[in-house]
Amino acid sequence: MAVRSLWAVRRRGQRLLALSTAWESRGWLLPFSTVTQRTAGEDCSSEDPPDELGPSLAERALRIKAVKLEKEVQDLTVRYQRAVADCENIKRRTQRCVEDAKIFGIQSFCKDLVEVADILEKTTECISEESEPGDQKLTLEKVFRGLSLLEAKLKSVFAKHGLEKLTPIGDKYDPHQHELICHVPAGVGVQPGTVALVRQDGYKLHGRTIRLAQVEVAVESQRRL
């Protein structure tokens, strides 16, 4: 029995030696070699730094982050202040433009009306200088020509600026465009509820009614007021 045990131990030792030789030939380390233990120890020491270095590194990282955030806050504050200043400037310029538009919005219209005034003034001067006493016919002709020229110029000015005269005769009564003065009996060819007579013209500016036309509306005889 002792011989068999010794022989078994010897064979086991030979196997371990052969296995060790094979591992070393391939460059592998044995699981329980001193080199393996030393390497594992070194790895552990490199991954786990001493406790006294941890807080200092964390504090340093927090300080760097705080400085970056402070710079970002300062940058955003400056941008915000500039944006507020730009908005105030735009607001002031807009108010100035609105005020100028209110004051000078009718400048072009007034400029055209000056030409109408020139025509009226020249007509008056011409009548007063050239007419002879007692020659009423010549005076009336000059007045008529001057008024005709004045009316044509006014119509041209109105059309240029979008001012349109309402001609509602025969149109259906519309309270948004017409001011009812009275009702009149519907005559021949006149439909009830339509405008029969215009007492005062109405006007529209760019499609918006700025003065209602004073009208008389036709109704059936039994509904006359």
Automatic annotation (TrEMBL):
The lineage of its organism: Eukaryota, Metazoa, Chordata, Craniata, Vertebrata. InterPro entries: GrpE, GrpE_CC, GrpE_head. GO terms for molecular function: adenyl-nucleotide exchange factor activity; protein homodimerization activity; protein-folding chaperone binding; unfolded protein binding. Essential component of the PAM complex, a complex required for the translocation of transit peptide-containing proteins from the inner membrane into the mitochondrial matrix in an ATP-dependent manner. Seems to control the nucleotide-dependent binding of mitochondrial HSP70 to substrate proteins. Stimulates ATPase activity of mt-HSP70. May also serve to modulate the interconversion of oligomeric (inactive) and monomeric (active) forms of mt-HSP70. Residues 59-93 form a coiled coil. CDD domains: GrpE. Keywords: Acetylation, Chaperone, Coiled coil, Mitochondrion, Transit peptide. SUPFAM superfamilies: Coiled-coil domain of nucleotide exchange factor GrpE, Head domain of nucleotide exchange factor GrpE. This is GrpE protein homolog. Belongs to the GrpE family. Probable component of the PAM complex at least composed of a mitochondrial HSP70 protein, GRPEL1 or GRPEL2, TIMM44, TIMM16/PAM16 and TIMM14/DNAJC19. PANTHER family: GRPE PROTEIN (PTHR21237), GRPE PROTEIN HOMOLOG 2, MITOCHONDRIAL (PTHR21237:SF10). Gene3D superfamilies: 3.90.20.20, Head domain of nucleotide exchange factor GrpE. GO terms for cellular component: PAM complex, Tim23 associated import motor. One of its GO terms (biological process) is protein folding. It is found in: Mitochondrion matrix. Its main location: mitochondrion. It holds the Pfam family GrpE.
